[in-house]
Amino acid sequence: MIASPLGWTGFGQWMFVLSAFAAMLLAVWLWDRRRRGKPASRAEMSALALGGVWALFVAGIGAGTFVAQLAEVARNLGWLFVLYSLFARDNRHNTVGPVRPVLIVLAMVELLQPVLLLLNLRAQGIPAAITMIFQISVMFRLLLATGALVLVHNLYAGAMTAQRAVVRWTCLALALMWGYDLNYYTIAYLGGAVPAELVALRGLAQGLSILLLALGTLRGGSALRFSPSRSVAFQSLSLLVIGAYLLVMVGAAQSVSWLGGNVSQLAQLGFAFATTVVILALVPSGRLRSYLNVMLAKHFFQHRYDYRAEWQRFTRTIGRGGANAMPLHARVVQSLADITDSARGLLLVPGDNGDLTLAARWQWHTLEVPAEAMDAKAAAFFEKRGFIVDLDEVRAGIDHQGEAEAMPRWLVAEESVWALVPLLHYDRLVGLVVLGRPALARKLDWEDFDLLRVVGQQLASYLAEHNGQVALLEASRFDEFNRRIAFVMHDIKNLASQLALLSRNAERHADNPEFRKDMLVTLRNAADKLNGLLARLSRYGAGNVQGLEEVDAAGVINAIAARYAAGTSGNIDMPQVYVTDAQQCPVLANRETLEQVLLHLLQNAIDASPPGMAVFLQTRVDGLNGVIEVIDTGCGMSADFVRNRLFKPFVSTKSGGFGIGAFEARELVRAMRGRLDVESREGLGSRFTVRLPLAAAANLAQSLENAGEAGAQKVA
């Protein structure tokens, strides 16, 4: 074991001599391979020769001499050129673009070393200047080692999986050489000098690097394609930023130490406090991370998206299951929002009248969405064009395919709405995703449109499959309902048989008083059974509404409110029913049917409201329609529940409920040529809106229809 500095010096000399011999031998062997027509890198031969010369100078005259330092500069430049040649090995010059600026900066930093050497010669006899030049030189070498290690990492991690074996040994050799240099110069900076032991071991590290290069050369090579992933590039940039930050910190600490005394301590504390505040403010910033991702994608990659990673994330989001998983409609929004870095979104789906209604929200509970989010004309535009709309362009007055005219006002007025993505399945619109503005807003380009269009088609197929499953489930429930009705039909059949038998016996025994007495009893029992059965069925049968006439909607809601007021008088725990606005509103309807609908909606509002809370009724005229609204401030309903469960028969949230009340109410309103809309927000309440044609407008429409039919008959 070598213990003395002199022993370490001798050991180091032998190590540098051996590494020089190995480098020259490998360089000559590569030159001979190239002369015989076999593949060999000129850059690697030059770097080996320069490294061998440097090792000889260090072994002969010492590592700190002027000539040895110049030789080290040449060696480092040679290996930087080797890195450049590896990145451009397959003549893909566009892949070298991202790393060329880094290589140029590192080469310029290394070329400052000769200037520092000349200044060191001029500053002989000035200890403070010599110390400062030494520290600056070491800082530059630390920057070189850090940047070179980042490039080596990028070279290996960015190569295709099958091609990593080609550069594995070269990357290991460069990582060993510059990794040792990083520790070597770090200790030199902290200690103010280079220990003899580290100089000696540097020769050993140089020799091991040459050995790894030889192993890599013996294994042969092939064309290399550099294709770094987004995560590798982001991590490499982060490593480079961290290295630069450490150098700045070291330089700042050394600068303030020259001040001395209390001023030095105050400056160091102030600098540490300021940098800590900056880090705490910027590191958690989502906007900063978004900016870095956009900058990397724009300047370091040919394509904005890593399609493999995006498709894996998309599949994970859509395929997520379990009790805690979000509904499919919310996951549809999230999968699209993740692609564009949007923090929120909505899903609109086609309603029964061809318009678009809200189906789901994802992290966007504050946006006010009308019951009719988009009319049928706008929905038809998206179904025909499949156009992805950038709302910023619409607000700027840019109109590509007539989308500006189709946009509803509430979408254009809401600045946080960023883009609209239609979901088409076999040229049929099954949904429209509304994306919120991302943290770092940008203009959508062709790559965004292509990816969003493909993902939209995939999402449309999922929604279409989901809708098909819901339809099958509903059909099965109707089948179950039909089986239940079979029992009712059985009872009716038994009654019909009894009555038929009674009629046949009456022909023979009509004169028998006892028979007539039994016949009356039998008829009374049959009638009671039929009336009871009809009463039960009428509760759930919507059917066609007959006898439409002019009905004052204001009078109907006043009568209903008075009925509830009489029933809840003096009971403060029961919800109170108030008429807030009873405008005269003559609509075309059946009064009993309209009361049945409103009583059902009012009872639902009361059931959803806490004890003592108010439920409001009001009427108004809206164009050619009369509007009746039932408003509560109860628990409310989610968009998913309103869309997929509220109007589905046989689905009930009440214990023992048959689940057909809301469905029956909607069908009754439709039978009166009207429409039932719902707006609800969880925790805030619900608004049920019954729209019926005004009596005057309905009479006018009927007159025009009759005139048209008469004209058609006359022509015929």
Name the features.
single chain; alpha+beta; Beta-Lactamase; 5-stranded antiparallel beta sheet; 5-stranded mixed beta sheet; 12 strands
Architecture blueprint of SSEs:
Blueprint: H1 5-35, H2 42-61, H3 66-87, H4 93-96, H5 100-122, H6 127-157, H7 164-191, H8 196-218, H9 230-257, H10 261-282, H11 286-300, H12 307-318, H13 328-340, E1 345-350, E2 356-362, H14 376-385, E3 389-390, H15 391-395, H16 403-406, H17 409-413, E4 417-425, E5 428-436, H18 446-509, H19 513-538, E6 549-552, H20 553-567, E7 576-582, E8 586-589, H21 591-608, E9 614-622, E10 625-632, H22 639-644, H23 661-671, E11 675-681, E12 685-693, H24 695-715
Parallel strand pairs: 7-9
Antiparallel strand pairs: 1-2, 1-5, 3-4, 4-5, 6-8, 9-10, 10-12, 11-12
Overview of the structural elements:
- The chain is α+β, with helices and mostly antiparallel strands and 716 residues long.
- The chain folds into 5 domains: 223 residues; 74 residues, no CATH class; 164 residues, Beta-Lactamase; 65 residues; 153 residues, Heat Shock Protein 90 (2-Layer Sandwich).
- The chain is built from 24 helices and 12 strands.
- The strands form 3 sheets. Strands 2-1-5-4-3 form a 5-stranded antiparallel β-sheet. A 5-stranded mixed β-sheet has the order 7-9-10-12-11.
- The protein is elongated.
- The N terminus is likely disordered.
- It comes from Novosphingobium cyanobacteriorum.
- This is histidine kinase.
- It catalyses: ATP + protein L-histidine = ADP + protein N-phospho-L-histidine.
- Pfam families: GAF (PF01590), HATPase_c (PF02518).
